[in-house]
Design brief:
The structure is a homodimer. In chain A, strands 1, 2, 3, 4, 5, 6, 7, 8, 9 and 10 form a ten-stranded mixed beta sheet that branches. Chain A has two domains: 100 residues, Pseudouridine synthase I, catalytic domain, N-terminal subdomain (Alpha-Beta Plaits); 137 residues, 2-Layer Sandwich (Alpha-Beta Plaits). Chain A has five helices and ten strands, in the order βαββαβββαβββααβ. At the A-B interface, β4 of A face β4 of B.
Chain lengths: 250, 250
């Protein structure tokens, strides 16, 4: 039967070169899924199932709830597909749910909101067990100042200054409707919610907010960075390991 | 100055062949500490600092609070030693505390109690982010039955049946004064507290309690295993990744 299989995927991105399929390495999340699905669907050699992800995560970035869909001809049930994928995927990629979606469902085009979380460690001890999912800071940032700067970013803006791709042809206008900064003991979590994010945008936003947090930039400067439309004015790109895609909304 | 340096150590044992120094590989926790301390103390080549651990953890086993001591001649302060070690140790080994102990303090001989935790996963989803610190079960065990069996183990007994070394020359009598089994959502944690544990003892106890949990053994059978003094009567050795040394008491 022709099915549009919707997958809810969780992965530890540490070992991978990001979400997106790359012809020269099997070490991408999409690539691993393709391998397993090709085998499950008994595709002929060289045939690759077309998996659409809600977005592309960078190398080293994690996801607790990536969404993807793939059209396939199969007699398997949702439960059978779930069990098959989890059995054959490596243990750093897990499928949490499989649903047969309507034929028109498209994981990327239909996404209306995304939630990311960036986790920072500012404790005195080494975060030995959490080290792959946190970015370690050298000192404790000024969180109220970071919140002040974050407030300037809320709304619909041209986020060109916060985009890694300087030759981005499509619109760089996005709506960020929520940035929450939570202190949980020695961990600081930055939650970013919006209708979409540009390449490296969450990491550049985090890097810029940390410039403010460590007093190297005034909170109000963030306004001027937005207006300038110049990547060089923003802060550095925060490392990938602290970032996790938490939710995709439809 | 002659110091007896006491270290509180946290480590992710995944990459290591256990705590104990091995001449043919640098991948032991003790070996890594020796390397860093030898450099810190400017020892001559081939000289190895004698580090005494409270016990030996197996390959793949973790620790949140291993205790060790090492006698050394140094002018450094406790804070300087802590910072030096954390800087040069790999990021899966962390020192949480450094204290100058009395010259007679011995991390192994003076230990009077130890607490271990064995963590089991019995959820439907794959524990992608916690996978290195849990043992995944295929089904949900009968926890009340496991508690009934655990109660038989409390007290001072000859634990020969639960010791990996059949030619153990020293006494195999130990006192286990507490086994608590806690259910935290999809994780089951087994806490073992006692005055000392034999080689693989916590893992064999866990493997045996799981035999009870999955109905392959009656709870009362545990009594007979203790009495038999025969390793072959006990359950299998549970895998190392679920085990963590939580505390050493003096």
């Amino acid at each position: 039967m022709e099915r549009n299989i919707k997958l809810l995927i969780r992965y530890d991105g540490t070992r991978y070169f990001g979400w997106e399929h790359q012809p020269d390495t099997p070490m991408t999340i999409q690539g691993k899924l393709e391998q397993v699905l090709a085998r499950m669907l008994s595709l002929s050699e060289g045939e690759i199932p077309l998996i659409t992800g809600a977005g592309r995560t960078d190398a080293g970035v994690h996801a607790r709830a990536m969404v993807a869909n793939v059209h396939a001809d199969t007699e398997m049930t949702e439960e059978e597909i779930l069990a098959y994928c989890n059995r054959y995927l490596p243990d750093d990629i897990g499928i949490d749910r499989v649903v047969f979606a309507s034929p028109r469902f498209h994981a990327r085009y239909n996404a209306v909101g995304k939630l990311y979380c960036y986790s920072l460690w500012c404790g005195a001890k080494k975060p030995v067990f959490e080290r792959k999912y946190l970015t370690v800071l050298d000192g404790v940032p000024d969180v109220p100042a970071m919140r002040e700067a974050a407030a300037c970013l809320i709304g619909t803006h041209d986020f060109k200054s916060f985009c890694a791709n300087p030759r981005m042809k499509k619109s760089t206008v996005r709506t960020v409707d929520r940035i929450e900064i939570k202190e949980q003991g020695e961990i600081i979590r930055l939650y970013f919610h919006g209708n979409g994010f540009l390449q490296n945008m969450v990491r550049i936003l985090t890097g810029t907010l940390l410039e403010v947090g460590f007093g190297r930039m005034e909170p109000a400067q963030v306004m001027r960075i937005l207006e300038a439309g110049d990547r060089k004015m923003a802060g550095p790109t925060a490392p990938p390991e602290g970032l996790c895609l938490m939710k995709v909304e439809y």
